[in-house]
Amino acid sequence: MSSSVPYDPYVPQNQNSNVAHLQSQIDDTVGVMRDNINKVAERGERLDSLDTKADNLATSARGFNRKANDVRKQMWWKNMKMKMCLIAAVIIAIIVIVVPIAVHFS
């Protein structure tokens, strides 16, 4: 080896081709691992985003459920009022028809 060039473990030396080949494989493996680490980090970010969206959806669902129950109760009361009005109208109609007949026969 020449003493003017410092030793660098990542630069293949002129020893044998097996060492250079192994170094190349190690460099490829390191590259793949770096890519995997980056992908895991991106996946974590996507999972955080998905978790936030799921929390927002759950909050919206609870709000929707509350409003749906309020609307259901309002419609029930409106329906009940309509039934009461119809019953009152039928009772009044019966009174209007029956009372004059009863007075006429008595």
UniProtKB/TrEMBL annotation:
Record's keyword annotation contains Protein transport: yes
State the compartments where it is located: Endomembrane system
All residue ranges annotated as the V-SNARE coiled-coil homology domain in the record:
18-78
The protein's matches in Pfam families, at most eight in alphabetical order, are given as: Synaptobrevin
Membrane-topology annotation of the record = Single-pass type IV membrane protein
- Cite the SUPFAM superfamilies for this sequence: SNARE fusion complex (SSF58038)
Q: Which UniProt keywords apply?
A: Coiled coil, Membrane, Protein transport, Transmembrane, Transmembrane helix, Transport
- Biological process GO annotation list? protein transport; vesicle-mediated transport
Membrane-spanning intervals of the chain: 84-105
Checking Gene3D superfamilies in the record gives: 1.20.5.110
Xref: PROSITE patterns: V_SNARE
Predominant subcellular localization, coarse grouping: membrane
Q: Name one GO cellular component term.
A: membrane
Record-stated family: Belongs to the synaptobrevin family.
Can you say what this protein is called?
Answer: V-SNARE coiled-coil homology domain-containing protein
Specify the species.
Babjeviella inositovora NRRL Y-12698
